[in-house]
Design brief:
Layout (H helix, E strand, L loop, with lengths): L1 H37 L14 E12 L2 E12 L2 H21 L7 E3 L3 E9 L2 E17 L2 H12 L4 E9 L3 H25 L5 E14 L6 E14 L8 E14 L2 E12 L2 H21 L7 E3 L3 E4 L15 E11 L2 H11 L5 E9 L3 H26 L4 E8 L12 H8 L26 E14 L1
Parallel strand pairs: 7-9
Antiparallel strand pairs: 1-8, 2-5, 2-6, 3-5, 4-5, 7-8, 9-16, 10-13, 10-14, 11-13, 12-13, 15-16
Amino acid sequence: MQNKVSYVVIIILAFVCLVLSLSIGRASDVSAQKNVSSLEPVPEQEAQPFGGVAVSSEETKNFLADEYVTSFTLVLKHKNKDAAYKHLNESRDKILTLLKKRSVDSRAYEFSSAAVKDDWKYTNHKKIFLGYVASQNVKVISHSKQDADSLELDLAGLAFVDNVSTSSRLKNAEALEVSVIKEACKKASKLADVHARSVGAEAGKVLSVEGSSMVEKLSSSDSVEVLASIAANLSLVGVENGGKSYVRVSQSENKKFLADKFVVVVGMSMNGADKEMIYKRVSERRNDVVQLAKDLGVAESEIDEESMHLFKRPDYEFDSNESRKDAFRAAQKITVNFTAKAAAEAFLDGMVGMENSRVLAARPVLKNEDSLRVQVTNIAGKKAMSRAKAIAEGFGGSLGKVVSVSNKPENEFGRTGLGSLNGALLRKARGKSAPMVLPDADFPKPGMNIADSVSVSAYLAVTAEIE
């Protein structure tokens, strides 16, 4: 009897819960309906019409080259460092004799600074020292393809010459670039008109345009390729745009200047089992190097001595023929600043034959690099404006005021470049670099071991209005 009562109570309670849940559900539905209906209707946003047609075009033209630049490297190897350096000097003299025989003007060739490096190879996971490699880069200008080919033939007979190549170039490249840019703009305008008419519309004025150009120096060719690339947005007739028209261009510029300071970095090192002995030997060699610089008129303030580094050599440095007893190394670097190239060359000559030491770097620098960079930037600005003017005129307008200038490769349109063409321009050097481009000015004949000039570069991205 008691169990039956319990079952009845449970059934009643379950029925009550069901009724309550249904009531709550209906109340929730009503509340939700009230909440929804109380919300204000969301106004539809007015569509912002895109009034324009986007196109891109490229124009390429080949022009007959009027200059040819032959590049090559002098490479001499020897187990003895002094012998490698001596053979490099002898080889350089042979090249100078060859150029004189060919009546090449001293303004039409350039030698880079010489370099002497260790020559290694790896065998069975061991680093084996082979000797030294002395090298120097050379560039020569020829005024005809026949002269350039003849020079290559002469160089082919010299065993110490490597990496010979000739590229063609134009003296009036800038003017030809402007003409190709205008052709690319005309092509873009025609293309925009075709696209617009295909959908029953008509192309209007240019809204924004970005362009770049390049002179491609072709190897072993009689011609030079000039390329221009354009990406433009043009309005559609009858569609509101209300904005101004803009053109954006970028320009990299590189100029060479005669160096007025020459920096030579010397490294001294010695291996041995006795740490005290090698420390003293390297100290003696450091004193010899410092005295050599002072004898050439270098002030003590222009000689920077780093602290000596005394350490245990790592296992991978030992080759199969070297005794493991020379477990320690003492090393030190000295930097010497010269104001005269002749003194720097005399110092380099004095380093030949000096044991336990080697020239790590010999480079020309500029004392007034910042002011010279201003000059290069001004040249880049003028060229950028010339190209912007060509683009504006190519679309039937004229160049208006400049609205932004930047030295960053990224542009105001949110892109980093127009494909490979602009990318190639942006990869140009933006700081000083070792001189490898032939000088435009009448620089002196290069000396034996260190270059005469320094390359200074600048980059500008300019955005201007089109009127």
